[in-house]
What we know:
Chain A has helices at residues 6-20, 44-48, 60-72, 91-98, 101-104, 134-138, 151-163, 211-225, 243-253, 268-280, 305-308, 312-322, and strands at residues 2-5, 24-28, 53-55, 76-80, 114-119, 144-146, 168-173, 180-183, 196-199, 204-208, 230-234, 237-239, 256-263, 289-293. Chain A is α/β, with parallel strands linked by helices and 324 residues long. Chain A folds into two domains: 2-183, Rossmann fold; 196-322, Rossmann fold, CATH 3.40.50.920. Chain A has a seven-stranded mixed beta sheet with strand order 3-2-4-5-7-6-12, sandwiched between helices. A five-stranded mixed beta sheet of chain A has the order 9-11-10-13-14, with helices on both faces. Chain A has a two-stranded antiparallel sheet with strand order 1-8. Chain A is globular and about 60 Å long. Chain B is 26% helix and 24% strand. Chain B contains eight helices and 18 strands. Chain B has helices at 96-104, 141-149, 168-181, 205-220, 233-246, 255-269, 313-328, 402-417; strands spanning 3-6, 16-22, 29-30, 35-40, 45-49, 54-59, 66-68, 72-77, 223-231, 275-278, 281-284, 290-292, 294-296, 299-301, 304-305, 342-346, 365-379, 382-396. In chain B, the strands form five sheets. In chain B, strands 9-18-17-16-12-15 form a six-stranded mixed beta sheet. In chain B, strands 1-8-6-3 form a four-stranded antiparallel beta sheet, with no helix packed on it. The longest helix of chain B is centred in the middle third of the chain and has 16 residues, at 205-220. Chain B is globular, with a radius of gyration of 27 Å. The model of chain B is unreliable at 90-133 (pLDDT under 50). The interface between A and B is medium-sized, with 13 and 14 residues.
Amino acid sequence: MREVRYWQALNEALREELDRDPDVFVMGEDVGIYGGAYGVTKGLYEDYGEERIRDTAISEQVIVGAAVGAAMTGMRPVAEIMYVDFLGVAMDQIFNQAAKIRYMFGGKAKVPMTLRTQGGTGRGLAAQHSQSLESWFLHVPGLKVVMPSTPYDAKGLLKAAIRDDNPVLFIEHKMLYGTKGMIPDGEYIVPLGLADVKRPGSDVTVVAHSRMLLYALEAAETLEKEGISVEVIDPRTLAPLDMDTIMTSVKKTGRVVLVEEGCKTGGVGGEIATRIMEEGFYYLDAPIIRVAAKDVPIPMSPALEPLAVPSVQEIIDAVKKLYV
Amino acid sequence: MIKELKLPKMSDTMDTGQITKWLVKEGDFIKKGDPIFEMQTDKVNLEVEALEEGVLLKIVGKEGEDIPVGQVIAYLGDEGDKVSDIPAQPQEGQEKKQETEAKTEDVQMPKPSSAPDIQPEPTPDIPSMEKPKGDRIFISPRARALAQREKVDYSAIKGTGPMGEIIERDIKEYLAKSALQQPAPSKEQAVPSTAAQGQRIEMTGMRKVIAERMLASVAAAPHIYLTADIDMTQCRDMRTKINDSLADKGIKISYNDIIIKACALALKEYPYINSTLKDGAIILQDRINIGVAVSLADGLIVPVVRDTDKKTIVEISKEIKELAGKAREGKLMPDEFSGGTFTVSNLGMFDITQFTAIINQPESAILAVGAIKDTFVPVDGRPVVKPMMKVTLSCDHRVIDGAVGAQFLKFVKSMLENPLLML
């Protein structure tokens, strides 16, 4: 085992897959000579050359469209969109092309592409560079949505995403790139569709993904001192969603808090809450609480930005509201 | 004068009964001897007759519910009595303790969960133990599911949830408290929504009794099993002769009738096999009453041939036919299936070669009889085909040692191999 940062874990995953499979290539804005806006592709251009590490024009439509085309011909592109906020520009390529082609061609064509991007708040980048838009894509059958919260998961999930024969939207978090974590020395894969119990507990279940997972763990730590045992679950993959792991926990605790950095209305939490109710209403001992971003554009002001999204304290308050 | 009509006890093993159908209505005048309701007990369906006459004022024992023996099921009165004359009192349960508890602890306390819900619908005429409900009760789905599973009436439980609602913790505390006050509550399965679905068949009446008694027998009695091969050549010849000569009278005896007769004679020789263990003593029964297991569509019952040793094979045969017929129609009377001292169970007609039976407590042994099969047997070193039958005796080893059981079996075998000895 050794300690790496989140960006390094991603960088390792890319290198291992580039080495393993000659069909894998990387493309996106500034992924080549510059090494990626957040450093994920650092050194790849030097080691793998411009043929496999390709800088593109500033055109999201072209990046996604070219990746879909390349994937259909048998390549395994790993395309990067610098901010999740920019996916709107390439929306038709994503939900009408990438997600639908396998179905429309009756399985004769497939789209084994990975679309890396990052989202979230924390750097004062204002309303157009700070969103958490994952819930949009849950509504599109044919897309997988992956959101790692730790270096270990980031590496294992990215390798699984690249090897998957379907389009995978891989959303990183701008505040996680510098975080550290342990990973094994050898190769490993984290399969898509498998949640992880990041902290076992017995009183309340907290489900959180991406950076909110770290907040949830911090809240659980504080609550433990007050005698409340919180089980923290990271779905890791939002589509497909591992309801088994979540329901096992709900059956144990009967109380659920769902945390996300995206807006509450139409968010991920609404979907998970409904599924918990459908599958296990009679296991619930209290209403489900969602802790999510306010339904406002993310402010640029460093004083206001953290108020728009959940804080550790808000998670603590929610748990206490359920468990007195 | 108002009289209480209570659920009668129809057999030794009966703890509860189900009224399957009331044959009279409220307001009817009932004469002594009138059939008033049909009841399913642990063993049979019966019509219950009135022991007293009067006007049926009020029915409180509902059809289809398990009702403890001794529970009030209706009120009888004289002409002119009104429903409102029925004295107000809490429902009388089987256990006095339960009743006094309820009285002293304030009638709002919900009933202990072990008793099936036997309260009538609250009516102005008969005050119930339930407190009147005003606003709805707030209870979490999880707590409600638990309450249903454990049959807890939660209307009087005080909630400790964040908004004062009843949560799982409150039901658990209630259960823990009532477990201290009384034997463990019965755990009948409720319906957790995500559990596997399947057809649900209530364990009632006969099924419940079979389950309880078989489990009790296996738990209490260490069984030993002894198997013997019996040559049925002579029995076969004798049976053919008897049946041929009595054919014009419509009499046809079975092998089982002969086996029962042989057992009766053997029991006389070996009284320990015909015994029962009671209060730390072995009671050697002074009568030989052999039960015959009869399978029914929904269970089995063991009608008893009394004083089997004193009856001829033909008498035994007639009696068993009659009892089995009644059993299949559900018309056996309690004294026709109680008081057995030994049981014979025969699965030969299903071509079962050999099996082991569970002792029908409080008896101490049971004989499991298999099919008669043509089998090669060595006779003077040469194979000869003979009709052979395997029987297995299950003995309660607390009472019967292997050697005693073996001697009994040897005796049965010698009787069946030389049936003339039975005459």
